Amino acid sequence: MAEKKKILVMVASPKNERSGTLIPTKAFVEGLEQNGDYETEYIFIDKMHIKPCRGCLSCWGREDGSCFMKDDDVPMIREKLINSDIVIWSFPLFLFSLPGQMKVLMDRIVGMVHPYMGQKLKEGANALNSHLHGLQFQKEGQKIILLSSCAWMDLDVVYEPIRKQFDIILGHEGYTLIACPQMRALDHRGGPRRLNMLREKYRKGGAELATTGKLSQEAIDMMQKPIFSEDAYVTLVTEFVTHMFDRDDNF
Ligand SMILES: Cc1cc2nc3c(=O)[nH]c(=O)nc-3n(C[C@H](O)[C@H](O)[C@H](O)COP(=O)(O)O)c2cc1C
């Protein structure tokens, strides 16, 4: 029997198992696994021992790009990141950016991207996949997926900083962003029917990637489509924020 390909899910929500982002993430993984070709490991970043980067950049001088600090969980995580076929970063949007724990880890693995040696972003026709770094060392054909949830609905606006950051680091075609809007309200007020609709869409998306090796723009649009109508959502969010302190699901 052929060896299974590896999916690594990097869970960056500080809520760990209670993360709302895990709902679409797990459904996407189920879709990916449906043909039996993949096996999956979840790493909860918040539970890992990760010291902050010291800023020396000595990793870029080492042949394998590794950090000089070897006494925490980063060397183990780095090995798994390098050797996986699909890496899914599952994270909530925090202030239009990444949760702090994920950023601390990303700084520690900066040696996984090519060093900056004065290169410039290309312009015009070649600009699309132009980047300042790009990954080195990762398994051939590896796919990187950013699966992120947020509270807002206007995905183009709220994910612009993340897109810009990853376009510059990895190149536009070096990763795929799937953004899941309205997640907080869905998690707490969606009810089983809406949550199952969401799961079904993400299962379909994962299945498409497993079967075709690609994610079409149609599949991404389908996963990203808000579940609540705009009016219903505004009413819900207003109620949610107004009664923030009356609830026990708020922890
Ligand atoms: C500190 C903080 C900052 C946030 N910033 C944003 C934001 O900039 N835009 C947005 O749409 N949602 C924002 N949110 C909402 C979360 O992204 C949203 O609730 C997400 O679905 C939580 O996912 P999780 O349950 O997996 O942690 C923020 C939440 C927190 C706690």
Automatic annotation (TrEMBL):
<dbReference type="InterPro" id="IPR003680">
    <property type="entry name" value="Flavodoxin_fold"/>
</dbReference>
<protein>
    <submittedName>
        <fullName>Multimeric flavodoxin WrbA-like protein</fullName>
    </submittedName>
</protein>
<feature type="domain" description="Flavodoxin-like fold">
    <location>
        <begin position="5"/>
        <end position="134"/>
    </location>
</feature>
<dbReference type="InterPro" id="IPR051796">
    <property type="entry name" value="ISF_SsuE-like"/>
</dbReference>
<dbReference type="InterPro" id="IPR029039">
    <property type="entry name" value="Flavoprotein-like_sf"/>
</dbReference>
<dbReference type="Pfam" id="PF02525">
    <property type="entry name" value="Flavodoxin_2"/>
</dbReference>
<keyword id="KW-0285">Flavoprotein</keyword>
<keyword id="KW-0288">FMN</keyword>
